[in-house]
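Hey, I'm writing a tutorial for new members on how sequence and structure tokens pair up, and I'd like a real worked example in the thread rather than a made-up one. If someone can provide the structure for the chain below, I'll link this post from the tutorial.
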Amino acid sequence: MSQRFTDANELLDHLLDRHESGVASPFAYLDYAGFASVRAVDACMKDLRRAEEAGAVRLKQGKGTRRDQVAHVRLESADALYRHRHRAPIASVARGAHARIVGGLSLHPDLAEAAADIASTWAHAKRWNGFAPDDADKVRDVFLLVQAILDERHAGIDYRTFSRRASGDSKTLERFERSVVGLLARFRNLAPGATPREALRTLGLEKFAPPLLISGHINLEGADLSRSMPLYLGIPPKEADRLRFRRMPAYLLTIENYASFNRHILEADQAGTGVTIFVGGYPSLATQSALRILVSKLPESVPLFHWSDIDVAGTWIFLTIEKAMGRKLKPHLMSPALAERFGRPRNGKSDIRDCPPDSGIAALVEYLARENGKTVEQEELDPKLPFAPTETSTVAN
């Protein structure tokens, strides 16, 4: 049902809104049943006649028994109606908002292009991430934060300190983190399916780094922790340099899922022949740094493995850890054969960018990109040592 009006100015602004959204020759109706009195009808008609005299609109009279009423009001000249309503065209408003966003800023070229795209969106009377041109100052804060991240000014400082230094307010990032991540995704290969907070954590922006959980025969600066530690040790990631391997592990395995991490320790490697590390889902930048340090203490002869869900997010986590370690990483219980045997049809697109062809996960990335690719949650597979062929795994009870 068409929108109807009892206020002339609201009707005229509606015509301009429709014009700015791309509607050719928009028109609107009066709500005769909604008027409070005959006097209200007369006042509305007086205002509409003035707009018609200004060349802005045309009033179409009804027929038959309704010939004394206006059937509809059609836009005649947008320029004339802008003048009549003392309203700036949306294209002009968008240009002004764009100037408020970028004024005085030295932006990355791609970020400057993004600002122009936002102005174009506004010029078509559409919102960007829920923001209208009147929100240009808020969008400027988003750009300040994104530019600071692209400049690596977030490195080594906490979430709120970064927000304060980049925008002048310690809570700005928290308020706009979804928009910040959405804009960053144009320039960075961010974690697919991650929440904005998880995505920022992988870049090093977090309030508190989660502990690094590690199991195996390890020392902490000479103290043997493996004998008193029932399952695993939790340390701040920045303390990774204090860890020592009491004996050379048969392997190092990182695991995405907490339940699978515990099951691997309890069921697959009770003797602690390897070192097993829980990376906490999408690994934070602090966790990535800790992994790099730990791997540097191992000879090339110790194989490195990672176990995640067989899905797009799992392959992204694998690639992130592989890059952080700086060494060849092998997938554990992550293969196209396992997906075909135990998987379900995937939902949505599979879009992993920047996967090197020599990556240990390249074959799975290629498989998941197929239209008929399947996914498997790692909890569905029983844990096993990363030596036997992964395709012989059994489904968890």
